[in-house]
Amino acid sequence: MKIFRGFNHPGRESACAVTIGNFDGVHRGHQAMLALLSAEAAQRGVPTCVLTFEPHPRDYFAQTLGRPEIAPARIGTLRDKLSELERCGVDQTVVLPFNQTLASQSPQAFIDEVLVAGLGAKYVLVGDDFRFGTQRAGDYAMLDAAGQRQGFDVARMNSYEVHGLRVSSTHVRAALAEGRMQDAARLLGHPYTISGHVVHGRKLGRSLAESRQGAGDGFRTLNLRFNHWKPAASGIFAVLVHGLNERPLRGVANLGVRPSLDPTDVNGGRVLLETHCLDWPGAPGGEEAYGKIIRVELLHKLHDELKYDSLDALTAGIAKDCDDARAFFATIHTPIYTETRRQTTRDRI
User: Fold this and answer.
1) How far apart are CA 253 and CA 100, in angstroms?
2) pLDDT tens digits, the chain, 349 residues: what are they?
3) Where would a tag sit more exposed on the chain, N or C end, judged by fewer CB atoms within 10 A?
4) What structural domains does the chain harbor?
5) Cis before 57? omega within 30
């Protein structure tokens, strides 16, 4: 998949079949829409294109208005969104910066400058609740009328439902916020996953007391940054780690801001996914792991983040989490979760 930030880049196709949206989580509704887009693109002999935005428009307005509470929790990072779009067979993705220029653009200007001149759209597929342009003044009827005048086809897709529940990013966020990981997986079509480069942390895990399994270097962790201040999920999870070994590794992960640690640590209080593997595969997980891209599946929530008042209490808490994670894995058939997916995201993202 080709990725472009904006329109004016060599290598971008001059015509396409496009769908527009934030695609946070790339859930089963998104996947159904992308399958329809692919079929329509094939009939027209043009590539598929996803037009998406970064930051999320509601993030932009939350910052502009000074109202952080209206920003949506983020299901996935940009890396994971692009990886999922590629897995769905999208040919090219255009990431537009959502800024004042875009926020103030009239619906007709969006059609003229973005869809027609910018993308060369021959087919535009939108959801049943699609709105566009300043103050969300543009709707499907306006887009369809413009298509008839300006030479592109327009279609909309009705809501996608699973067992009577409309599949949406809102429902995925709710499931993750409430720790209903199986419900989130049903909406997403796969376990909730976060991927990224392993980064340096505070190295505190190496200095904690050895685990009851006798690991010689304490509770060392693989650290991934979640590049948004408001993740949809948070807490302690039983996880599977892909990318360090031929088979996925069982682990315990903390997703959040680590309230027991100094907020001025090396990661500056940012959201981290810190994963401790229950059975380390030898050398990986030491210095060799830094910079590697791993994928962590969050399968089961153990509890919310806790603030411990001492390192001894933190050590005991982690040890109990490890025991609880082992108990969880003993209750499931691990092969259900061991399907591997090709790592496709570009290192530059």
Assistant:
1) 38
2) 999 998 877 778 889 999 999 999 999 999 999 999 999 999 999 999 999 999 999 999 999 999 999 999 999 999 999 999 999 999 999 999 999 999 999 999 999 999 999 999 999 999 988 999 999 999 999 999 999 999 999 999 998 988 888 899 999 999 999 999 999 999 999 999 999 999 876 555 554 544 444 444 567 889 999 989 999 999 999 999 999 888 899 999 999 987 655 555 555 568 999 999 998 765 444 566 778 899 999 999 999 999 888 888 888 999 999 999 999 999 986 544 444 444 443 333 3
3) C
4) 1-164 (3.40.50.620), 191-329 (2.40.30.30)
5) no
